[in-house]
Structure formats: structure tokens, C-alpha cells
């Protein structure tokens, strides 16, 4: 039977230091794609790995007093453990020191040399060890590396060169005729401009050190680390020893890379493939950087964020969700732990988690714990539209957009609870009750399927609480078809899906914490008791045109407050609505009226804008 294949790659990581949240970003994105395509029943090959050669690694090993091999073996354990923590479902983990890979690099070199694409010459120029890149005099910026601004050293050595220029026109033509090949568009334009300037021959071997793939045709030389590294993508697919496997998986469908290494992939890698007579990848996608207060995370800047610490603190789903949802894939985005907490609380705890607990609670209360049989659906169309947007977005690698579509469906379900008011339907014995409850549970069931590429724990728990018998690991994309939940299924209420994360005074793992001035400890914030209150009555205060007197319900008591909002709010518009109130403020007399509390409002150009809960909650609900 024909099964569509999907080959997705991450860059292979330098093991010179512990990996940080920036590396996790690429890898989690690739993992979500891999899981989504598996869900669709495709034969997925998801490759990640390590780029273990080069002077930088050799220097690090020397600094630790061990051989490079011992050093990279040690680092490999840490990296695999990190991916296990983040539940990365790779199918192959390639290391460039493996014999299978060294053989491929040697074969690639041999072929390109034999056909005259590679020739022996002399190299004179500048070398940046940090970037493992050569630069000509004219490319340096104030005598330093134009990419990382690090020091460069003068090199003069015999070297083999790759005639990149031979293939420049063909590459340009390919880029122009394949709009999906190189994305996002801004990176494609950059690359086109770069190629048009003319491509210099690339030095592809080194003689200064030996921590690299040795080349039988070039005694004393090792392969330049980028030539070595890029080749990994075909080694793992079976080139050249396993032509059957190679024919199955190559070309790669999606190669994810950070924006700073698009150049290596779009130009050097693709020209290598052309020279070998192999197909180019379907798509290379250059994503943006996750930055901290405007600067890139890097060990040398001392501002790295350890994903393991975050997973311990917030759970794997919160971290994965944040990475995928927070920033549109392709753009640069800012990382902060506060943003991660907010995302988790708003999207996962409030919206998704609450929907699940409210739905299961109402099915228990109003339907004896069993999913009712519906007569019709009000949410089906919303869910189907969201799911087709999800599919489109995933196909376009808009990972954040896809999750946003699921969020819309969840929000629609929460809103449906408010408008349909199942408690009233139940009281009146209205048969719509069954329709509403079924709709809510069914939205949760399909949302869990659509979330399963991103979240690795919550979807299973959603299915479990809904009483779905099959484990979600067996779900396929067909399971998003509306109506899969069998009426009569007994729900199993459980613990909250995502407990709210209380903001705590803790040092951010990033060194780049915000300035400490004017900050108050959390204890001070906790002293202010905020609650939601429902407005029962509202009237103007005589003789004071800006003031309104409100009688509000705090659940356990009624209070009168006076507030300066009359210019922006008519009293009758407030009655029945909710506000947020400071409950433990000392009472005061305003224009002769005792005001016992204070409401919260934003001010904007002389106007006030009331802060209200996003949906109605019981009067007296605490705000924190
Ligand atoms: N070894 C090369 C890749 C060779 S691929 C044939 C390399 N390794 S790396 O470890 O330095 O970086 C790997 C990837 O991590 C890059 O795609 C890079 O963009 C990504 N990231 C590293 N820090 C990052 C952020 N702060 N934000 C997002 N991605 C970042 O380059």
C-alpha cells in the first residue's frame, strides 16, 4: 500500500555547550511537525543529531582535558536526555563521528573531486573559530568576524575548493521556480541577492587540525566542518549505501534551520546536492531567534535558559506549548519566564483546562455523568472551520497559527456555556441541554487530537476524563471528524488539567532579568484582596457629575462604593455586569456617601475603561 512519506530535519547541534531553550525551539517545532504527519498516517522520518567535528569542539575537549571523542560522547548523553525530557520523538539521532556518516562524507568528496567540482588550491584569508567560517579580508568588519564580531586568525594553507559558482544560475532558477522551496520570503530574497553578487569558491578542507573526517583522496586534510555537517541529512536517509531507503525518503520535505544558517543550507548544501545529481529538499524554512530582551541567547553572553529547569517548574506541555504558540514561526520572538507563565495560565489553565472541568462537572450534574445523545449541534461548524484552518496552517508551517485555531474553538465552547447557560436549561427541563453538553465534550475530544502534536500529556488526560476508551496514542487525523464521541460514554472527572501557576518571586533563570527598581515583593501584592463583584444598582451622586454610587454583590455581602466613572459609563449600562473590586480598602466618605471598596479601571487619555472578567464568574470570586 502506498504511504506518503514525510522527512523532517533539524540542524545538527554543536555539542560545545549545554543546549538551551533556543535549540529546544527548533527541535520542538520539528517534533510537532513529525507528530502531526504521523497523525495523518504518513511514514515519517524525523532526524536530529549532533555536529561533532571542528576546531571549536577540539578546543573545548582540550580545555576539559579529555579527548574530543570522550568529550562528544559525554555531551551526547546530555543532549539525548534533554530531548527525552522534552519528549522529542526523533526516528534517528545522527552523530557526525559515526562510521556511517564518515563514509558518506568521503564518498561525497570523492565524487565531487572526480568530476572536477572540487580542486586543490591555496587558501589565504581569515578564519573565525567561533563560526567555523573563512572570510576574505574585505568581508571583515573592523578586523573581526562579520557574523559574531569575534576575533579571526590569519590562515594560509593548501586547501581543496568547491566551485560553487558553477551552479549559481541553476540554483537561482530553482529558487525562482519553486516558491515553497525557501521560506519565509524575507530569507528567500536575502539569499537571491547574495547569490546574485556572485559565489566565491569555497574552501572545503582544512589541514591545521585533525578533528574531522579524514579524506583518502586528500592526505593530511580533513573535511571542512560545514561540508561534513550538511551531509548528515543524506547519510541518515541511506546515501549512498542503501539506495532503496534513500529513494524512499530523499528529498527531505522540511528542513528547519535558524535564520543565521539559512545561507549554508540554501547555498552550500543545495549546490552540493546539485553537484551530486540529487534532488533539492522540498522546503527549507529559516525560523527566527528566541531572544532575551533583544539579544540572542548564548553561553558567551551568560544569558542562556535551561529548558530542563523550565520543564521541572512548569511541566513539559507548558514549555512545548509556549515555544510553539508564543511567536509566529519565522519571526524573532522574546522569551521570558513571565510570558511562559501567562501563556500557560491563559490558554491552558483558563481556557482549555476550565472547559474540561466545567464540561465534565456539568455532565455529572445534569446528565448523570453520561455524555447525552444530541439532536443537533451549534458548535460543529465552528469546530470544523477551526480544524480546516489548523490543517492549512500546519501545511504552511504556521505552527502558532494552528494552535491559535484550536484556541478559537475552545474559546467558542467556553462562550457557548455562558450563552446557552446549561444550568438554566436543566432547571427548565429544556432538551437543548443534551445538545449543549454533547457539543462541549465533542469540542474537547477533537481539540485534544489537534493538540496532540504539540502537547504530549494533556490530550491523553482530556480523552481519559471524557471517558474515551481508546488511548489517544492510537488516534489518527480521522478522529477529528465531528460526532466521534459515543453518547452514553461515562465521563471521569479528574484533577485540573493545568493548575494555575501562581506568580512567585523567583529569580528568572535568565541572567537578563529586568531592572529591579520599583519592584515590590509578592507579599505586598497579596495584601491587596481583589474580588469580582456583580453590580446590583447604580445611580448618579447628586451634585457630582463624575461620580456614580454602586451597590455591588460580593457573594457573601453587599457593599456600596463611589466611583469616578460617570463621564464614561451610564448607570443603567452597569447593572448586571461585573467589576473587579479592591475588597480590603479602608472605607472613606465621598460627597457624603460611605464608599467601601474601589473598582479597577484603566485610564486612557482622560477616560476610564473598566476592568471586567473575561466571562461571568460567581460574585466574590478572588482575583489574583
Ligand atoms: N552545527 C550547526 C548546524 C549544522 S546543520 C547541518 C549549528 N549548530 S548550533 O548548535 O549552533 O545551532 C543549531 C540551531 O539552533 C540553529 O538553527 C540555530 O538557529 C538554533 N538556535 C540557537 N540559538 C537559538 C535561539 N536563541 N533561538 C532560536 N534558535 C536558535 O549551527
What secondary-structure arrangement, pairings included, does this model have?
Elements (H helix, E strand, L loop, with lengths): L4 E5 L11 H19 L3 E8 L4 H10 L3 H18 L6 E4 L3 H16 L3 E11 L4 E3 L17 E10 L5 H10 L4 E2 L1 H12 L5 E2 L1 E2 L15 E2 L1 H6 L1 H4 L7 H7 L4 E5 L3 H14 L8 E4 L2 E3 L2 E2 L10 H8 L1 H10 L7 E2 L2 H31 L12 H16 L3 H22 L1 H7 L3 H20 L6 H9 L55 H6 L2 E12 L2 E10 L4 E6 L7 H4 L3 E5 L5 E3 L2 E3 L2 E2 L1 E4 L2 E4 L11 E2 L1
Parallel strand pairs: 1-2, 1-11, 2-3, 7-12, 11-12, 13-15
Antiparallel strand pairs: 4-5, 4-6, 6-8, 9-10, 13-14, 16-17, 16-19, 16-25, 17-18, 19-22, 20-21, 23-24
Helix pairs in contact: 2-3, 11-12, 12-13, 13-15, 13-17, 14-15, 14-17, 15-17, 16-17, 17-18
Bound molecules: 5'-O-[(L-methionyl)-sulphamoyl]adenosine (MSP).
Explain how this protein is built.
It contains 20 helices and 25 strands. Among the domains are: 345-480, Isoleucyl-tRNA Synthetase, Domain 1, CATH 1.10.730.10; 521-623, OB fold (Dihydrolipoamide Acetyltransferase, E2P) (Beta Barrel). It is α/β, with parallel strands linked by helices and 624 residues long. Strand 23 (601-604) and strand 24 (607-610) form a beta hairpin. The model is unreliable at 505-517 (pLDDT under 50). The structure holds 5'-O-[(L-methionyl)-sulphamoyl]adenosine (MSP). Residues 11-14, 22-23, 25-26, 51, 229-230, 257-258, 260-261, 289-290, 296-297 line the site of 5'-O-[(L-methionyl)-sulphamoyl]adenosine (MSP).
Measured between the Cα atoms of the first and last residue, the distance is 56 Å
Inertia-based shape: elongated
Strand order of the largest sheet: 3-2-1-11-12-7
SS content category: alpha/beta
CATH architecture of the domain at 345-480: Orthogonal Bundle
Uncertain ranges: 505-517
